[in-house]
Amino acid sequence: MSTEYAENSLIYKEETYKIRGAIYHVYSVLGDGFLEAVYQEALEIEFQKRGIPYEQEKELEIVYDGIVLQKKYVADFVCYGKIIVELKAITELEDSNRGQIRNYLKATNLQLGLLVNFRSPYGVEIERRLNYVDEE
Q: Exposure of 92 by Cβ count < 10 A (0-12 exposed, 13-18 middle, 19+ buried)?
């Protein structure tokens, strides 16, 4: 795959660029070592300053066989009405964290999620997760 094709095929490229900028700014100011809730509050402020539309602690419905379940998922942020941003402050992202955002995407039928870890030993870590539809 050519680089030009890969760059042009990213979904929500400009929106994620703005979200990532806010995330990196929060990290540059706070650094690592804080609880997830601290990063969440700081990121909300940064979204407001940058004019990034968001919903915080957005309840996500789960539908089973056409019936909305009482159990809900709660995403840290949904930005632009179409990008889930899930925050962590842990030493290392695990498969369970990736599974969490995969379930959020599946439940909402949204196409893109950003899994953010503010306590990675390599600085802030952002994983771009896509909602793939299985074709059988």
A: exposed
Smallest CA-to-CA distance from 27 within 95, 87, 107, 70 is with 87
Residue 69, phi then psi, degrees to nearest 5: -80, 155
pLDDT in tens, 37-63: 999 999 999 999 999 999 999 999 888
7, pLDDT greater than 70: no
CA distance 62 to 72: 6
Domains, the chain, in order of start with CATH, read 3-130 (3.40.1350)
What average pLDDT does this structure show over 22-32?
Answer: 96
Secondary structure of residue 46 in the 3-state scheme: helix
Rg (CA), the chain: 15
CA–CA separation, 103 and 76 (whole Å) = 14
pLDDT at 53: 98
